Structure prediction request, 94 residues.
Amino acid sequence: MAEKKIQCVCGFGCGSSLMLRMAVDDILKKNGLSADTFTGDVGTCLSNPCDVIFISRELAERIVDRASVPVIIIENFMDSNEVEEKVLAYMNSQ
Prediction:
């Protein structure tokens, strides 16, 4: 099975998406999982090849109806329990 490509998205692709990406990387490592993680911005994220998009609720409303991959909404990027739960749920469903 090919390594999953996880895109972490925020408004500009360099602030909260980077923090989210680092959290996702930590969760994957802690659980012995591997994925190619990268950041993106809401304006161009749908043109980036990936298997899943992690994004805030506010920004998800702008892309969810046009996305061809699962869009996973993170209510609070700083809530490590929420991020871990949603990352692991996605990875375990694959």
